Amino acid sequence: MREDRFVLGRLVARAFQQFWRLTRGMYLDVEACVIDEADRILMVRKDTGGAWSLPASTVRNGENLEAALRRLMRDVAGIEVNSKPELRGFYTESPDRQTGIYVVRNWQQLSAPATFETRFFAPASLPTGVTKPASERISRLVEGRTISQT
């Protein structure tokens, strides 16, 4: 009798998992760690006086991760990525979002950013308001580690 309950419980749990996967979406985001010739990191902020962060965007339907990165860099910073960017890994900060993070070293400035304030900062002197997880990701990326390496 107990074994029947256990098997039935597992079947019900599996059915609910499949239902949740079909009814709840998962978002895919892309984030860029753009490094200039002085080894400084590009940070953006949307609002004057707002928090600084790495450039990030949601991947659009039908777009792959690298195409989303290239669009993000053109739209947010006026930057053209000149070579294949280096995908350093994925992380999640919420159950419904996965973020792929790239390191971009080979780029050129094509135009001034239209709506975002952008500035380069040394990794040791990031602006105030950068979250601790973002700061840790930046440290790992600058040191050549993946974001999951400690």
Following the backbone from N to C, one meets helices and strands in this order, namely HEEEHEEEEEH
CATH class: Alpha Beta
Residue share in helix:
25-40%
What is the alpha-carbon Rg in Å?
A: 19 Å
What is the global morphology? globular
User: Reading side by side through the largest sheet, how are the strands ordered?
Assistant: 3-1-6-5
CATH fold field value: Nucleoside Triphosphate Pyrophosphohydrolase
Number of helices: 3
On the 0 to 100 scale, the average pLDDT is 85
Within CATH, the superfamily carries the name Nucleoside Triphosphate Pyrophosphohydrolase
Number of extended strands: 8
Domains counted in the coordinates: how many? 1
Largest sheet at a glance? 4 strands, mixed
Low-confidence sequence ranges: none
- What is the CA-CA span between the terminal residues? 47 Å
Secondary-structure class: alpha+beta
Overall description:
This protein is of the alpha+beta class. It has a single domain, classed as Nucleoside Triphosphate Pyrophosphohydrolase (Alpha-Beta Complex), CATH 3.90.79. The protein contains 3 helices and 8 strands, in the order H-E-E-E-H-E-E-E-E-E-H. The model has no long low-confidence stretch (mean pLDDT 85).
Spell out the key features of this protein.
150 residues; Nucleoside Triphosphate Pyrophosphohydrolase; two-stranded antiparallel ribbon; 3 helices
Quick description:
The protein has 150 residues and is of the alpha+beta class. The chain has three helices and eight strands, in the order αβββαβββββα.
